[in-house]
From TrEMBL:
It is a single-pass membrane protein. CDD domains: ATP-synt_Fo_b. It is found in: Cell membrane; Endomembrane system. Residues 44-129 form a coiled coil. This is ATP synthase subunit b. F-type ATPases have 2 components, F(1) - the catalytic core - and F(0) - the membrane proton channel. F(1) has five subunits: alpha(3), beta(3), gamma(1), delta(1), epsilon(1). F(0) has three main subunits: a(1), b(2) and c(10-14). The alpha and beta chains form an alternating ring which encloses part of the gamma chain. F(1) is attached to F(0) by a central stalk formed by the gamma and epsilon chains, while a peripheral stalk is formed by the delta and b chains. Pfam families: ATP-synt_B. NCBIfam families: ATP_synt_b (TIGR01144). It comes from Lachnospira hominis. The chain crosses the membrane at residues 17-40. PANTHER family: ATP SYNTHASE SUBUNIT B', CHLOROPLASTIC (PTHR33445:SF2). Belongs to the ATPase B chain family. Keywords: ATP synthesis, Cell membrane, CF(0), Coiled coil, Hydrogen ion transport, Ion transport, Membrane, Transmembrane, Transmembrane helix, Transport. Component of the F(0) channel, it forms part of the peripheral stalk, linking F(1) to F(0). F(1)F(0) ATP synthase produces ATP from ADP in the presence of a proton or sodium gradient. F-type ATPases consist of two structural domains, F(1) containing the extramembraneous catalytic core and F(0) containing the membrane proton channel, linked together by a central stalk and a peripheral stalk. During catalysis, ATP synthesis in the catalytic domain of F(1) is coupled via a rotary mechanism of the central stalk subunits to proton translocation.
Length: 177
């Protein structure tokens, strides 16, 4: 059965028990305060530092993300500008090439016109030369024939005048056709 205290109580609630309980409570309280300084505060500080580090890392990550987005937008803007600049350069190159092409074609046409003019001039000179040769041959033949026919009746001066008169009557146009 249950052992009863001397005075019939279940447990002996006396001054000694209360004193021991209060000393134990004070010791527990002192131990709690001492352990909180020794163990709890360092653990709290460590947790606080970890929480601050996580918050800092999160803020840094957000800042890095914003910076990366800004850099991406800047890169895209530069890329668009570079594409526009490249398009402008290509457009300018096309214009220069077109201008050069037109200049080359114009120069070729001018050269062709000069060659044609020179060929026409040379042909005209050759035509004049051929006409002069034909005139000289006709004159020689006419003189030979005239000298045989009228060898004794017409003098050399009269023969020359007759040839000149005949040539003037015929004109240059007769020799050109």
């Amino acid at each position: 059965m249950i052992a009863l205290a001397d005075d019939g109580r279940l447990f002996g609630l006396d001054y000694q028990l209360l004193f021991d309980a209060s000393i134990t409570a004070i010791n527990v309280f002192i131990l709690f305060i001492l352990l909180s300084f020794i163990l709890f505060n360092p653990v709290r500080n460590m947790l606080k530092k970890r929480q601050d580090k996580i918050t800092s890392d999160r803020e840094n990550a957000e800042a890095d993300k914003k910076e990366a987005l800004a850099m991406k937008q800047e890169y895209e803007a530069k890329l668009k500008a570079a594409n526009k600049e490249a398009e402008g350069i290509l457009s300018d190159a096309r214009k220069v090439a077109k201008h050069n092409e037109e200049k080359i074609v114009a120069d070729a046409k001018q050269e062709a016109a000069r060659i044609i003019a020179r060929a026409n001039t040379e042909a005209e000179l050759e035509k004049q030369k051929a006409a002069d040769e034909v005139k000289q041959q006709i004159i020689a033949v006419a003189r030979l024939m005239a000298s045989k026919v009228v060898a004794e009746s017409i003098s050399e001066a009269d023969s020359q005048a007759l040839i000149e008169q005949t040539l003037n009557e015929m004109g240059d146009k007769t020799w050109l056709s």
